[in-house]
Amino acid sequence: MRLFIAVDLPLEVKKYLSSLKGRFSQKGKIAWVKEENLHVTLKFLGEVDETRTADIIRRLSDIQFVKFSLTLSQLGFFPSENAPQIFWVNFIDPSGLEKISQDLGGNLKEFKNDHPFQDHVTLARIKKLSLEEKNNFLKEAKRIYLEGQSFVVEEFTMYRSILSQEGSKYGAISRFRAQK
Question: pLDDT at position 75, please?
């Protein structure tokens, strides 16, 4: 099964981020992430044999963290504005996320990291844009003033991702709460 570890977003933050789609003139091929799928990926595990799940859950349970706040910061693009493929939002002071990510790396060393952790929520995947469409998309993105939405992170979750014709569907396998 295909697994990843993430911090979920509160419903009101998901609704707000999903509403940003309406600020763009939908030209070009852009795949917006469904509202219910918005999250912060801490670690992608990939395909994992189901028999390993209990051991992974045990090791994730060893990770200790205290609850912390996150506030939306800015919009951006991976790998860059010149070649946008991923449209994202990140956070002011992501140190709480970074600590959990480091602990995950230490507890799950056998799962390789394709790239270093960068705090972000993927809002859309940019499949194909003409030069004019890209320039318009960038202009529209730069006009957006993000409301300083904040929320408290009290848990992270191991999810199963099921790929289908309608897109990915995520199911929580286990949740890991912050210390009191």
Answer: 96
Q: What are phi and psi of 48, to 5 degrees?
A: -130, 135
Whole-number Cα distances in Å, 58 to 8, 54, 155, 173:
20, 6, 15, 13
Domain count, the chain: 1
Dig out the tokens for 10 from the structure.
Answer: 């509160």
Question: How high does pLDDT run on average in the chain?
Answer: 93
Give the Cα separation of 54 and 31 in Å (integer): 34
Contact 2, 151 (CB under 8 A): no
What does pLDDT average to in each consecutive run of 10 residues of the chain (180 residues)?
A: 96 96 86 95 93 95 96 95 94 96 91 83 93 92 91 97 85 93
The DSSP letter of residue 83 is S
Give the CATH number of the domain where residue 159 resides.
3.90.1140.10
Q: What is the pLDDT of residue 158?
A: 97
- Helix/strand/coil (H, E, C) string of 27-62? CCEEEECCHHHCEEEEEEEEECCHHHHHHHHHHHHC
Output the pLDDT for position 119: 95
Kindly give the interhelix angle for 95-107 and 53-61, rounded to the nearest 10 degrees. Answer: 130
C-alpha–C-alpha distance, residues 124 and 132, integer Å:
18
Domain interval for residue 119: 2-177
